[in-house]
Specification:
binds 3'-phosphate-adenosine-5'-phosphate sulfate; APS_kinase_dom; Rossmann fold; 41% helix; alpha/beta; binds adenosine-5'-diphosphate; ATP binding
Amino acid sequence: MEGNLLSKSTNVVWHEQSITKEDRRSQNGHNSFVLWFTGLSGSGKSTLANAIASRLYSEKVRNYVLDGDNVRHGLNKDLGFSEEDRTENIRRIGEVSKLFVDAGQVVLTAFISPFQADRKLVRDLLAEKEFIEVYVKCPIDTCEERDPKGLYEKARQGIIKDFTGISSPYEEPENPEIVIETNNSTIEESVEQVIKYLKENDLI
Ligand SMILES: Nc1ncnc2c1ncn2[C@@H]1O[C@H](COP(=O)(O)OS(=O)(=O)O)[C@@H](OP(=O)(O)O)[C@H]1O
Ligand SMILES: Nc1ncnc2c1ncn2[C@@H]1O[C@H](COP(=O)(O)OP(=O)(O)O)[C@@H](O)[C@H]1O
């Protein structure tokens, strides 16, 4: 996507809102931030994001899951899987996440987000403690065995081009706040690991 970092909006002036992020947090009784899940297809991002969302919901923490497959049906349906399009995909999700944080919500994002620079761009959009990178780590062999949507098989057959881990790169996070090894832990254990982190860091 050409020139996606250039602003074409001129003569626009920021308007302060009467209700602030702090007001909304205070009314909700909890912080707002992004839990940014990143990892290979089939590593467990969506499964964990949804399991944690249910747990947060039961604890009355307002939250919303943004998922790669779903967002690509609407907001980002004009984007494919070239490096440029993935970068634009993550940039838009970062901006949407920032709006949710401003609205006082906990956002759980489940995107492969394979590039370090793109994830850093989102981190830099947000304040400290508003971006929690969760590396959903799983060997590609296990992801391929799981193959919940049959995509690895199609990628191996060359039917799907530029498939992450097969014909398109995945850059591992260098310094994620949380690492979950889904081939070594159950879904329940992983949920507890994340909830423990959030409580220990006074985020919820
Ligand atoms: N070429 C290729 N590479 C990777 N993934 C592919 C591809 N084509 C389709 N899919 C499906 O799209 C989901 C990934 O979309 P994302 O928006 O998360 O990707 S990215 O962050 O922009 O890289 C991904 O979802 P998950 O399996 O949940 O990760 C796939 O279902
Ligand atoms: N410990 C685990 N954590 C998360 N998912 C697991 C685990 N063990 C097996 N799975 C399975 O792996 C698959 C992961 O798929 P999904 O959550 O869609 O991954 P992603 O969103 O990363 O593509 C699901 O079928 C899930 O049930």
